[in-house]
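Morning, I've got a small favour to ask if you have a moment. You're getting the sequence in one-letter code plus the fold written as tokens. Thanks so much in advance, here it is:

===
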Amino acid sequence: MPSFLSDLSKFQGTGEKNADGKTLEEFLEEYNPYRYQTPSCTTDAVIFAHSGKLEKGLEGLKLLLVKRSNHPSIGYWALPGGFINIKEDLDDTARRELEEETGVKGLVMEQIATYGDYDRDPRARVITTAYMSLVDEKDVKVQAGDDAADAVWCEVGLEMTQTEWTKDCEKNLYTLWIRNKSRHLDTTALVEQTVATGLIREQKFQVKEMGMLAADHAAIIVHALVLLKNRL
């Protein structure tokens, strides 16, 4: 099939032919990208808001959530996000989906993690890239759109309820709570953080109890909160 890209100049390497005697162009003409099953890619955005000075304990912090209007996790609350277009950079997807679902745009957004457990979405093999941003609440206006039934700021809090050390790793259990009185939302999730000790710090955040949060979004939220708290 024809190349995915029109400009191949930076992929020519030394200009040699491969072992089958093909040029890059000839190789790409016969290349089948659907020979193997391929995953879908999405982005999710953790948008925090504060009013005034941000305290080390994150008191008064708010989180932007959307209510899902369709399956899967219909009626549950989720991070703004969605599927990447075929010719779209990940950063652009995160900003587009955030604007389409909440009306919020123009933010500085940091890529913080990739979540790719095979069973995180029943529709397909979906890998998501998580982003984080922090804004002054008065500077943004939220309005639900696209496939979001609602989009609101929620009170959010995090408490480490258990720590366990072994020779090779540290395990922390976090309780995450999210509230919005006007939407009758008051939910709690449990997330476990596992960190390998040593110079290489492999870590994973895993949902133990999801509450009314979609998929693994509780883990992504806790991941972002831990990052933010450590920086303060």
Notes: Helices lie at 24-30, 90-102, 217-231. The longest strand covers residues 148-165.
